[in-house]
């Protein structure tokens, strides 16, 4: 199968004061090339979600444990499908409970995935999603 051509999306992203031309790749992801010195980075739009303390935290201990198990199974399924790049909880007891980085082409798809999370459905979590640019292939060290 031949790789589909990149389609030019008529939108410019300001990055460090320089407008960048966004393209849509064969899978529907927004990308652009960013030159810094001798290095060229292909930037890709991901979606960063903040998992926040939900409004319904009155579940019994057993029910909360069941919801957490279902939440983790949901996240694991999405990771296996390649829709999550990284996710994890924060190490404190603040209102922001953790983060998820979704690798999906649209904000709408990221929001749909969050709305299907059993912890969100139960009201234990609510999620705030933002577009987030990172170099393709970036890793944690």
Radius of gyration, Cα only, in angstroms?
18 Å
Distance between the termini: 35 Å
Judging from the principal axes of the Cα atoms, what is the shape?
A: elongated
What would CATH call the homologous superfamily of the largest domain? Dimeric alpha+beta barrel
- The helix/strand series, from N terminus to C terminus, equals EEEEHEEHHE
- What is the number of E strands? 7
Q: What name does the CATH topology of the largest domain carry?
A: Alpha-Beta Plaits
If you average the pLDDT, what whole number results?
87
Describe it for me?
With 141 residues, the protein is an alpha+beta fold. The chain folds into two domains: 7-44, no CATH class; 45-132, 2-Layer Sandwich (Alpha-Beta Plaits). The chain is built from three helices and seven strands. Strands 1, 2, 3, 4, 5, 6 and 7 form a seven-stranded antiparallel beta sheet that branches. A hairpin with a 2-residue loop joins strand 3 (30-36) and strand 4. The longest helix is centred in the middle third of the chain and has 20 residues, at 61-80. The radius of gyration is 18 Å and the shape is elongated.
């Amino acid at each position: 199968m031949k790789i589909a051509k990149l389609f030019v999306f008529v939108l410019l992203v300001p990055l460090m004061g320089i407008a960048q031309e966004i393209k849509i790749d064969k899978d529907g992801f927004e990308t652009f090339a960013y030159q810094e010195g001798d290095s060229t980075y292909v930037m890709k739009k991901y979606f960063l979600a903040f998992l926040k303390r939900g409004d319904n935290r009155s579940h019994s201990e057993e029910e909360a444990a069941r919801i957490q198990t279902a939440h983790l199974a949901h996240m694991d399924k999405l990771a296996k499908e390649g829709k999550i790049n990284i996710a994890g909880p924060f190490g404190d007891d603040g209102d922001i409970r953790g983060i998820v980085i979704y690798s999906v082409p649209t904000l709408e798809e990221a929001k749909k995935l969050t709305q299907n999370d059993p912890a969100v459905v139960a009201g234990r979590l609510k999620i705030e999603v933002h577009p987030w640019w990172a170099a393709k292939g970036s890793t944690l060290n």
